[in-house]
Specification:
By secondary structure, the protein is α/β, with parallel strands linked by helices. Helix content is 48%, strand content 14%. The protein has one domain: TIM Barrel, CATH 3.20.20. The chain contains 12 helices and 9 strands. Strands 5-4-3-2-1-9-8-7-6 form a 9-stranded parallel beta sheet. Helix 11 runs antiparallel to helix 12 (248-261). It is globular. The relative contact order is 0.18.
C-alpha cells in the first residue's frame, strides 16, 4: 500500500476527509520551506502538494503564478527541489508529498531519471496538469516501477467516458477540478459541484478529491460532504504572502486548523 493509500485508509477509519494543501517550492524562499511544511502538518494537512515553479503554468491563476515567478527568481531548480524533499524526510516529515509540476521540467530532466530520483528522495506521487492520459504512455510504467502514484485531473466538462479513462490511469486519488478556468479563490463555488463529485465517485475505484477555488471552512465543509478530500492552494499562498516571512508559519497553522476542522 502506498503512503497516499494508507493515509486515506486511516482517514476513513476516523471518518475524516483529507485536507490537501499546495505550497510553491521556493516561495517566499527556499529557506522557509521546512518551516512552512511543518506548519502545514501542525495545522492539519494530510498531504502536501509541492509545486515545481514553471515559467508558463497554464492551469494556475495569478496567485500561484506570482509565487512561481518569485521561486524562479530565487533560483529554484528541479535538483534543488529533490534535495529539499530529501531534507524534509530526514527532518521527520512523514505525510505524503506529491510534486505538482508541468511536463516540460519533467521531460527536460529526463522522464526515467525524474521518476527514479523523485521516489528515492521520498516523493509519493506526481500531478502533471498538462499531461493528459493519452500522452502519458511513457510516464505510467516508469512511475509504477518507481512506486509513484499518478494523479490525473477531471474537469467539469469531462464526459463519463473520459472520466473512466482518467480513473483507469489514476492511482492515489483523482483530482476533480471544481470549475473551468485556472486556480484561484472564489467567493462562490459552482452549484453543481456536489453532483459532479458524486458522479465521479460512482465511477472511481480510488478516492476523489476536489480542488480549485476553495478557501473557506464553509466551502471545505460543503465539498467534504461528498468528496474524499479537499485541495486548497491559492488561499494558502495568499495567507503566506499577506503574513510576511516572519509570521507566515503561525498564519499557516491558524488558517489550516479552521479548514481541517471542517473536514471532520
Amino acid at each position: 500500500m502506498s503512503r497516499i493509500s494508507g493515509m486515506f485508509a486511516q482517514l476513513r477509519r476516523r471518518k475524516e476527509k483529507a485536507l490537501i494543501v499546495y505550497l510553491t517550492v521556493g516561495f517566499p524562499s527556499m529557506k522557509m520551506l521546512p518551516s512552512l511544511v511543518k506548519a502545514a502538518v501542525e495545522g492539519g494537512a494530510d498531504l502536501i502538494e509541492l509545486g515545481v515553479p514553471f515559467s508558463d503554468p497554464l492551469a494556475d491563476g495569478p496567485t500561484i503564478q506570482m509565487a512561481s515567478q518569485k521561486a524562479l527568481e530565487n533560483g529554484i531548480t528541479v535538483p534543488k527541489i529533490f534535495e529539499a524533499v530529501k531534507q524534509l524526510r530526514r527532518s521527520g516529515i512523514k505525510i505524503p508529498l506529491v510534486l505538482m509540476t508541468y511536463a516540460n521540467p519533467v521531460f527536460q530532466y529526463g522522464l526515467a531519471q525524474f521518476c527514479k530520483k523523485a521516489a528515492s528522495v521520498g516523493v509519493d506521487g506526481l500531478i502533471i496538469p498538462d499531461l493528459p492520459p493519452e500522452e502519458a504512455g511513457e510516464l505510467l510504467p516508469l512511475a509504477r516501477a518507481a512506486r509513484l502514484d499518478t494523479i490525473f485531473l477531471t474537469a467539469p466538462t469531462s464526459s463519463p467516458e473520459r472520466i473512466r479513462k482518467i480513473i483507469r490511469v489514476s492511482t492515489g486519488f483523482v483530482y476533480s477540478v471544481s470549475l473551468t478556468g485556472v486556480t484561484g479563490t472564489r467567493n462562490e463555488l459552482p452549484s453543481d459541484l456536489v453532483a459532479q463529485a458524486r458522479r465521479i465517485k460512482k465511477l472511481s475505484r480510488v478516492p476523489v478529491c476536489v480542488g480549485f477555488g476553495i478557501s473557506r471552512p464553509d466551502q471545505v465543509r460543503h465539498v467534504a460532504s461528498v468528496a474524499d478530500g479537499v485541495i486548497v492552494g491559492s488561499a494558502l499562498i495568499q495567507t503566506i504572502s499577506k503574513a510576511g516571512s516572519a509570521n507566515a508559519p503561525q498564519a499557516v497553522v491558524r488558517f489550516l486548523k479552521g479548514l481541517k476542522q471542517a473536514c471532520r
